Amino acid sequence: MSDAPAPDGSSARIADLIADGPTLSVEFFPPKTDEGAEQLDRTVDELDPVGLSFVSVTYGAGGSTRDRTRDLVVRLNAERDYPAMAHLTCVGSTRAELAALLDDYDANGVHDILALAGDPPVDGSPAGGDFTYALELVELVRGRGSQFSVGVAAHPELHPRSTDRAADRDHLAEKLRAADFGVTQFFFDPADFTTMVDELAERGCTTPVLPGVMPLSNPAGVERMAAMSGATFPADLAARVEAAEGADRDRVVVDATVELCRTLLDAGAPGIHLYCLNRSPIVLAVAEALGLR
Ligand code: FAD
Prior knowledge:
By secondary structure, the chain is an alpha/beta fold. The protein has helices spanning 14-19, 34-47, 66-79, 95-107, 134-143, 165-178, 190-202, 219-229, 235-243, 246-266, 281-290; strands spanning 23-28, 54-57, 84-89, 112-116, 149-154, 181-186, 209-213, 271-275.
């Protein structure tokens, strides 16, 4: 892992860190309550010894956490010695709104953006705004200057709205070519990741893609998320987690997570992005076992 300064003298961009990988990073979400904010502050402190490569902060559907995401990203980026990446969605927003937010990030030293489409309204009403696909947001960020590094989402098991595998991979390859790196939706079978990487390579796309790995600490919650994101739910592993108690339960979760991460790194993944749900214990145990601290 590198902490070399970027050419502009600021801390390194995530694209550079991935090039020097393997990286270890985590995703946070902006807390809604004071208790949640205190929990996240504790987690951030507890993760300090890991020497994370970077963190990312989610953006609520339709911009519902716009200010909380922005404030958390700016604060983490300023206070910690790793970059914080802002997730940003474009569906339902105007070009002017997002340009203003990007300029605000720029002015506050935040230069890592995960450019996402976001989901259209669940009731089927028109999303409005100036954007349809994430690629258009990548282009908007690129237009704000070369100080930004841009990541995009990838779905190893296809995006849930994709009806055609080849078309899904064609659109993903085109988007990744315009970006610096990708981060995947969670998955539990490493073959889903390696097959996606092969399919991208067949299209001449070699942009690095970080696997997003979800420890199965909360099987019921992950089952709900998997249903929404089109990921296959690992029923056998969930049954083993449910059958274990206390420290044994954590051990089952950590062992399964470490095994998946090792397989992915051995297969050439440029790093691991952990969905940590604002908690530290599993990340600490996984980082220790992987020797990525
Ligand atoms: P796109 O890349 O635009 O793809 C969406 C669909 O459109 C796909 O089916 C694709 O094949 C298709 N498509 C793309 N281009 C074309 C084209 N030219 N013609 C026809 N079809 C096309 N959501 C949030 O609201 N907040 C978050 O913080 C957030 N973080 C995420 C982080 C990660 C790592 C991932 C994997 C997802 C995240 N999401 C988040 C979810 C994401 O917003 C949704 O999956 C959304 O439905 C699609 O976003 P996308 O960026 O993948 O879209």
